[in-house]
């Protein structure tokens, strides 16, 4: 476990306490064969005016997740100090090496930074970057919105997400923030390697933490970008950082966000063998227990019949497999159901 009190090796000359707009870079050391004193520049924009809450917006934690990078970059260019009462810290491109290689994992050390928190200033590049976020940036925040999509791994129905929180007050504040963001769904989930994620670091500090899943399949989701841009403005309104009331009406006619959950292991459809997966449903479609989720085909084996996979829970498909080829142990679908505030103790 890293010492969060250890000094970060990443340099940043932005004065986070100064009023006005500042745009610059955090510089993370990265010695390379052709640049012994090389650095990686991570864009940061801070807009501050007087006293008030601090909203932290992060995108590009995974390099192949685009909608948050676009939405936060757009806001960082447009937001002006006179519009703000408080502070907005925007990092649209956190994991720059992964962004430039269009990959989930960092090409520098092969790690998923979102499994490296709270990080280590003397560790690998991803661990060093995770430590900077946890020890330098995060303590300033009153709310964190960490924008993700399903990358190349999956497709996802546009949604916010949060962990199930044992603290009822923090849980209520997070649910309220999700309603303000205004995605079609907000998914409360648990049991997914929480301890080493950025979200877990936020929660351990008692700070409201929202994630998003706004598309996937390795392309920019047009509706995901729209929802993301509107959502972060809605959060600023919800926190009183900018004027206005959150706009939460859905294109399907609903007045606001539908709270969902992924609570049990049987919400996941797992691949028991490696092969070519043929799904039967798109994300956002309703499914029933016992209905066919898809087939795994073994095209390399003559006359081998495909293996049928079944849903084990009623609900709506939250995630669907991205690549056709799947590996034994992969989740090929995740089913969400309507939220229930009564959760078992794990």
UniProtKB/TrEMBL annotation:
It comes from the Bacteria. GO terms for molecular function: hydrolase activity, acting on carbon-nitrogen (but not peptide) bonds, in linear amides; hydrolase activity, acting on ester bonds; metal ion binding. Ca(2+) binds at residues 62, 65, 148. SUPFAM superfamilies: Zn-dependent exopeptidases. It holds the Pfam family AstE_AspA_cat. The keyword Metal-binding applies. InterPro entries: AstE_AspA_cat (IPR055438), N-alpha-Ac-DABA-like (IPR043795), N-alpha-Ac-DABA_deacetylase (IPR053138). Residues 52-238 form the Succinylglutamate desuccinylase/Aspartoacylase catalytic domain. Gene3D superfamilies: Zn peptidases. The keyword Metal-binding applies. Keywords: Calcium, Hydrolase, Metal-binding, Plasmid, Zinc. Its cofactor is Zn(2+). This is Succinylglutamatedesuccinylase/aspartoacylase.
């Amino acid at each position: 476990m890293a010492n969060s009190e250890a000094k970060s090796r990443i340099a940043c000359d932005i004065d986070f306490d100064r009023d006005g707009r500042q745009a610059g870079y955090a510089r993370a050391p990265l010695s390379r064969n052709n640049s012994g004193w090389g650095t990686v520049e991570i864009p940061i924009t801070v807009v501050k005016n007087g006293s008030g809450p601090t909203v932290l917006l992060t995108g590009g934690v995974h390099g192949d997740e685009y909608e948050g990078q676009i939405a936060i970059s757009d806001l960082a260019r447009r937001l002006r100090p006179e519009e703000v009462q408080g502070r907005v810290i925007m990092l649209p491109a956190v994991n720059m090496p992964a962004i430039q290689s269009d990959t989930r994992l960092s090409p520098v050390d092969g790690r998923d930074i979102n499994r490296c928190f709270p990080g280590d200033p003397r560790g690998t590049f991803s661990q060093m970057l995770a430590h900077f976020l946890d020890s330098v940036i995060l303590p300033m925040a009153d709310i964190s919105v960490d924008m993700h999509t399903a990358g190349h791994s999956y497709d996802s129905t546009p949604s916010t997400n949060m962990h199930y929180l044992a603290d009822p007050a923090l849980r209520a504040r997070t649910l309220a923030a999700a309603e303000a963001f205004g995605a079609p769904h907000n998914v409360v989930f648990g049991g997914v390697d929480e301890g080493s994620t950025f979200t877990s670091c936020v929660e351990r500090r008692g700070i409201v933490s929202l994630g998003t899943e706004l598309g996937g399949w390795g392309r920019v989701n047009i509706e995901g970008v729209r929802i993301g841009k509107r959502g972060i403005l809605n959060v600023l309104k919800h926190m009183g950082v900018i004027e206005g009331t959150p706009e939460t009406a859905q294109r399907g006619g609903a007045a606001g966000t539908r709270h969902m959950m992924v609570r049990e292991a049987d919400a996941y459809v797992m691949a028991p063998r490696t092969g070519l997966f043929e799904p039967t449903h798109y994300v956002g479609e309703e499914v029933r227990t016992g209905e066919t989720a898809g087939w795994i085909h073994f095209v390399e084996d003559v006359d081998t019949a495909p293996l049928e996979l079944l849903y084990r829970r009623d609900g709506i498909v939250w995630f669907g497999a991205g690549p056709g080829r799947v590996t034994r142990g992969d989740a090929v679908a995740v089913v969400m159901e309507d939220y229930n505030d009564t959760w078992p103790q794990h």
